[in-house]
Fold each of these.
Amino acid sequence: MPDNGALKEKTLLRFLICGSVDDGKSTLIGRLLHDTRGIFDDQLSALARASQRHGAVDGALDLALVTDGLEAEREQGITIDVAYRYFHTDRRSFIVADAPGHEQYTRNMAAGASTADMAVILIDASKGILPQTRRHSVICGLLGIRHVVVAVNKIDLVERPAERFQLICDEYEAFAATLGFASIVKIPLSAKLGHNVVTATEATAWFDGPTLLHCLESVDVRAAPVEAAFRMAVQWVNRAGDGFRGFAGTVASGRVAVGDKIVVASSGKVGHVARIATFDGDLDHAEAGQAVTVLLAEDIDISRGDMLAAPRARPDVADQFAAHVVWMGDEPLLPGRSYLLRCGTQLVPARVTALKYRVDITDLAPRPAKMLELNELGVCNLATDVPLVFDPYATSRATGGFILIDRVSHATVAAGMIDHALRRATNVHRVAHRIGQAERAAALGQTPRILWFTGLSGSGKSTIADLLEQELQRRGVRTMLLDGDNLRHGLNRDLGFSDADRVENIRRVGEVAALMVQAGLVVLCCFISPFAQERQMVRELVADGEFLEIFVDTPIEECIRRDPKGLYAKALAGQIPNFTGLGSAYEAPAAPDLYLDGMQAPDLAVRSVLLRLALADESA
């Protein structure tokens, strides 16, 4: 193997091998490692033993086992997680990611593609281009990969291989014409036999192109981050000692030098670079990829999450933007639902305000959609609670990519690529008034809050809320009762009962209820509100202590028996699809602020609420 000391002078290429299941991705990586001497002797011995255990014959090595490390993968013969391997040649060092081919693991593939400089799209010569081949190609294009190798594998197993190879290449080029790849190199190969992987073979004498290794060693993926405008997200404010206040982070793009003028993108405040400190000493300048601590000559208010930028090439600062998203959540993306959005070091609440369309991976055409399911791609508009600092993803992968996080489970549910800011949003500004919530509440002599009654249809929540409002009015409390049926006759008359419409229904109600809290009222809201995320979203619209989730827990058998509106009878007869509790799920509160047994008398439930409010008042 080459001298490790020589590796310091080599460039590093991160590349991804992807494609459909059973196309031979793991075997190809095993072949690359084996033929470049990237497998040590003890690993070869272990591989030989594992190959025998998993059915290899005549002492042959099952090279796929080099990367399929999980026991579940070896038992099923598939790749589940993204496997990373390192190897090098005399010309270059490599980090290769083996992406899973199964559709259900597309989210893992997207994670591997997000850091790759190049992609090898593997295609089984006997099967041709499959849906997952297209999906992976689209994701590679969206995630900014500009150099692609189309590796037509198992070429030794098909008749008239030259014709088959050309047919697949023509089809792929036609499909990928709009994906924005800077280069597409096509290679016929056999990962199992090693044909055209590291060395050329007479078996494909009709092919006069390069080997896969030659492509990997020669592709040029340099320079763009350094040539771009300076960007550095502040990861940490470093106060190492008296008078030392530095802003630590990794330069995402461009370069910065001592004496340069920089701007804090979110505030517009300008400063000058006094020092660029590192663990090994100060630098005159820093470039993309370097982790540094920047000290400024001026005392400027800068916090974690802020972005330092070049004053004459500033990033966008907006709270609304359009983006492509790859949906990774088991539950669908629903417009109106609130998520957490992480872009670099920024973490902000966000919601999808409009799903513009779903991308059909068969022909890349836009298709109308009300939601995105697992592994689907779409284009949507998003809004954040506070302005986000970003560049379009086409300009900068580092500052234009984001993820969406489920607010309840904290799982990553989407990878996003920002297309552009919605410029019209910059014309809308919040207006501060001299009379606010505190003054209005003081004039009424009460503590405003939202009393949110949730439960199945027929649970008794509306009856309890109606009696409660009468009692509050008798005590001089100014209230407003919002009932789901009443609002669907006016404000929400345009909404149906799909999951997406239910989310939007609660979003609108929450905004109205929050406005009424600002008016100083006690707002009683009676809504099935089946999803925990939307109830949490409404809670976050008001201050701590101003939202009281009241769960009226009534067995569905009792709700069906009561059936005050005859809806259960219609649902059981198949006349109302997606009825909550029958055809559509109800997510019961795990820890409500107040639990009410729906089987008790309504006046006793009202007393429990009054007691809870009295306790809240006393603690306040």
Note: Residues 499-518 form the longest helix (20 residues).
Amino acid sequence: MWMLVLAAIPVAVAGWAVLSPPVVLSREMTWDLLFNLAGAWHLHLGQIAHVDFHDPVGELNFLLTDIGFDLVGVGPHAFLVGAVVMAAALFVAAASTAWRRLPALPAAIFIAFVCLLSLMPANVGDNPNAYSFAMSYNRYGWSCVSILFLILFQPPQPRRWGDALDIVVAAALLAAMFYLKMTYFLMGIAALPVAALVSPHLRKARYGWMILAIAAVALAISPFNRAYWSDLVAAADAGQARDVLADHINNFLAHAGEYAPYLAGFAVALWMWRRGDAPLRLPVATGFILAAGAALLSQNAQTHNLPVAVVIAFLFYAVLRERRLKLLHGGSVGLLAALLVFPVLSIGASTASLTGYHLKAMHHTTATVESTNLRGLAVPKETPGLLAAFAGTQSDYHLLNRARAIAPRYELSPSEYVETLLNAVDFLRKAPGRHDRIVVLDQVNPFPFMLGLAPPRGGNLWSGPGAPVPDPEQLFSDADSVLIPKFSTFSPWTQQALATYRPYLDLHFPQKAESDSWILLSRPPRAETDTAPSPSSDLRSNANVSTRAP
């Protein structure tokens, strides 16, 4: 009871902090938030992930937002609802794991750690005030794998049906990680034989864990997941697998001080085992968790921070509490409390991020979208910037990129990006021809979601560095319009796409219109659609819808 009360209070407050503001604030990487909304919109209209659209990330990340669409309507707030749904599921999994393994206070800290990590409005490894909601699947994945490792490497107190509960929770976590991001699933599978060697509670229920391992492998190789694997292979072939060892070494050395305590912990675990003060399980689990965390980090966009390493502190806590080393005498309580500093600091970072987000989102210091299904999205207000300076000039989308050469982290600020999207909506309403199925030569295509239109089938959900380049027939056959940004979120990919698809576009999309920010290419009207209603009226009626498109 105390564990649940202590854990539920911070998790409930965190959920309120993200849901209560009237807007969804995005300070960085707004296009990544729209990537999630666009993927959820595909699912909302009945399209199938990895078949109708392609991405190496699993569909659970988008399914959570689709649940939000059903609960609160189509809009940016649906993403936050999906995050809270995920945090609630993690709360159940973490509570059912921790209550048999840790005292009330450490168990509550563990539950709060994994839940607040999933709700944090910034990517792991970014500043707490990034407020991007980018790559949410990584935060969910870190939380899931942390719970799984505590199940596998910390023996529980015996309870009736306890082993069965552990196996059920572990199975759910593995399935979630499989449909979030494959690397987390693979590390979870790799942990099973390691834990079986050193964890007595796994050997005690060996048949149940063997069935779990067989079921997890069967899930992975099932025929209905072949399309998922095809997208993963295509992404790896295109260069999305980060396999440059020098980059990983440089990232490690740049943040060596961050990892020093964990490496020291591994050395202490070995020393304790050699002295007979700790079971072999402690150094093996510590070494494996560090190696698994490094492997996961190597395939993420982030360059540092290993949330899963916090589990090591709980393993040490449990061993020292059980052994009551004679060496420590009366100082054992102080050392046990010191071990909890690691997860408490992680909770502090998540709390700071959530608190700052809530305060910023509640104050009117942002520019808020008032139209389309993007209404409710807020971005920082800015004085007229480079985009405004170039408005009305000759169409050359390299201008902004050259002007930003000495500047920032991204080619467009969030406010500039949103401004170009709203400009495109106005442009499409006025442009001649039908624009019901739109392809965009940028990293993300948010317009079907924004306008309530059916997305074209066959393209990538994310088109950026290392993304596969689809065949033109696959990408454009279901489209009637192509939008080319003059100010791209990633100009190298836009330039590559133009060079690759120019002959096809010239042949099939000859009609051209142009605005300050966009170039629109249109397919000639097909015979059967010559008498269709004008697109301007269609787009006006779709601009504010939040229902399923026909």
Note: Confidence is low (pLDDT under 50) at residues 389-408, 528-550.
